[in-house]
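Bug #77: duplicate submission created two jobs. Keeping one. Sequence:
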Amino acid sequence: MHQPPPIPGPPPVQNPPPLHGPPPIPGVSPIPGASPMLGPASVAVPAPVGGRATTERILTVLAVVGCFFVLAWLNGRHVTLGAGHIAIYTIVGIVLFAVGLLAVAAVNMVADSSTLGRSSFTAIWGAVGRGFLTFLPFTLLSLLAELAYKWHAAPAFIQASITTAGAAAGVELMRHFAPKSRYLIVSMMISILFSIIWTLFGYVFARVVG
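Kept job's structure:
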């Protein structure tokens, strides 16, 4: 008896070729741990060019110092009388503020030398400066309260802006370097200390010139 030919089985299964994702884009760094299947969504935003980053830091520092200059001037009008005394109070206040900014960046760098110690101080300074941009709304509100409504609100606004900016600086450090809560704690502690020093400075200055 003639037997039917055997039915051929399914073809052998071959392993699919490995997924390598899209070719790398020049100047763009991939996100660590990202899947190659995500394609363009797995790459980070290009890092700013050196010149543009430097310009951004300079503008940020100028904006922050300008806001604190206005707040210190408004606060000086309640501490002492006379344009000369107010000018001296404002200049000394800006020097104290610059020291406070440097302290936030330097103490965070020392507190986490394993991460921030490998970064440049200018990058850390830039992140702290971006956090202190929260001075801007407090400055505008203080100007409105003092000059338009004649409220004596500058001392309250400057104290609130210092502590809020310290917290924002800690958040900026967490966002740009590592999600470590120590940045927030250290920045808040330094800002509270600076707020106390600022209050003592106003008291001593009023006693000296008064």
